[in-house]
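The instructor's notes for this session suggest beginning with a concrete chain rather than abstract definitions. Hand out the sequence below and ask the class to guess, before any prediction is shown, which regions might be ordered.
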Amino acid sequence: MVRRRVPVLLAVLLATAVAVPFTAGAANRLSTGGFADPAAESTKAEHLLAERFGAGAPQLVLLARTTGSIDGPQAVTAGKDLARELARQPGVESAVSYWTAPQESASALKGRDGHSALVLLRLGGDDNRVHTTATRLVPRFTGPHGALSLSATGPAQVGAEIQEHSQRDLTRAEAYVAPLILIVLVLVFGSAVAAGLPLLIGGFAILGAFLVLRVLSSVTPVSVFSINITTALGLGLAIDYSLFIGTRYREEITRGLSTVEAVALSMRTAGRTVLFSALTVALSLSALLVFPLYFLRSFAYAGIAVVVFAAFAALVVLPAMLGLLGPRIDALDVRRLWRRRERRGASGGFWRPLAAGVMRRPVLCTVGVVTLLVALGLPFARVSFGLVDDRALPADAPAHRTAQFLREEFTGREASALSVVLPHVGSGSREQVGAYAADLSTLPGVARVDTVTGSYTAGRHVQAASSASSASFATDTATRLSVVSSVEPYSSAGATLVQRLRAHSAPGEVLVGGDAAVLTDTRAALADRLPEAALIIGGATLVLLFLFTGSVLIPLKAVLLNLLSLTATFGAMVYVFQEGHLSWLVGEFTVTGMVDVTMPVLMFCVAFGLSMDYEVFLLSRIKEAYTQTGDNTLAVATGLARTGRLISAASVLVALPMIALATSGITFLKLLGVGLALAVLMDATLVRGVLVPAVMRLAGRANWWAPPVLRRLYARVGVKEE
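After discussion, reveal the predicted structure:
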């Protein structure tokens, strides 16, 4: 790469120029959904409702308000005209309003204040078509409409506003954080020229990942929120890799090696470490592919792509850049005094005495740090899971304000009713269906059951079905029931209600759908795949670190310590975002008493990969020193002295893009940013700086032990220092 630096860099520039037009507008092709399991019972229920009844959960909810009575002549005329006009719109499969709904369900669509009513819209197509329809209808039909004033909420509108907010937040955060990152880079690298290298590497990695997402969106759904992690992770890894290789290159140049020799030696050592680090991060992220939710899989697509491109740029493009710069990498040096100290052979500064102090009291340090981390993680025992809804938006977002009004002013929960589908019980079984509906209406948490024979409350038949509503609840081969609950769908009470509906004796096969059912099925899908994901992450980590070190104990220690480093993140997830403590530290958000069920899985895979990034960096220098000296204690102190400053600087630089993500007004993106920033900083300080040297001191020479059969395997296929 050094000898062919000009052709290599020209080829990269050409490829980048060709890729840029293809990545333009990539975000517009991505989806806002992906939070449900496509094979779940709730998803099957929704498909059957759409195919056989032309019904299902409304994706768009319009709130109509008037200064007078909602039953006044002008409001009634405007409401009926509105419903008819909406029903004729392309992409709208059904429009049910207070003024046109059957009598038995109309009352639930009227607000308690007497001045408001609802229009429920079901939109056709996949997530992208629903999103397109909603973004076309909402600007046209919100605001004044005759005697009514309209505002919108519902899953489609919430998704559209979340996408808009997240893209705007990302742009704003990048504008604020980019100069700060540049300043820190200059201080860390010491040279304005060297500080520019990770930005170029990061830009290349992010562009490459965007191109991959653009291509993948043509063949499979991809979540738009993967863009946020692409930017943060791409820049963070580029900084890590550039810092590690660039620092080693400077060491070798200082020792008097030529540019070619310094680059070659840097790539044989630091470059090899970067390759192993990239493999561990990519494999950690690949565990997200086992989950059926394309929201999670999209983060795997984005993360693996950005890791691959960052590693490629560090191993191919960066050597060519170093070859072009040569000793001029220290041009525009802003740390000349510090640089002289480094060139005199600084002994590791703060980090060598820290390692020595920790290893003098390894038991005390180990017990103290483990106790602290476990204590920080204890709040996670109180976790309560939910799904993303309007409360993920800022409190002043239109969809959030409208949904909050619905929660306060509408006694019924028509928009979040559960659907019970009997796919093999037709209209000829009215008596059985009526008895079944009456039984369901007595279950705790059920406010009303609507079906082919009418409405039921507390076991009583309170309203007979009209001919129009009867036809919409039954066909010759199937029947549906609408179960309006009295409990919050995204709560433990909602999940309990779903379980009761599914367990209750029925006249045939039953499929239960609706918001509460989606949450129940999503939790089950994630729990079912967790062992497989853990096996991928754990197995890949153990194998790669064995090939890297030849040790059995070090890979096991790495997995356990990485798990400990995540405890503070998971505890903060509950303590701050579920319960609302210390919320002023992270910015305003709505406390719902729940954590999105996908967040622990996503944060675990991403944070574990980043933790392994630093583990590999530290172990590479410890292993190098141990190979040279055979002294475990000296090797640990030397390894920490040589990498402590790099890892601490890298963790700050990686945390900055994550903190930028935490400035988002979208709660789950804020949680992701705060959690990952906290995980990175805790790992780089308490775990790498204290816990790793303490545990390795306690283990002594056992750190490097392996049974004879594995020693022979390592001798044949392991990676060794040259």
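Then share the key points. The mean pLDDT is 86. The longest helix spans residues 155-189.
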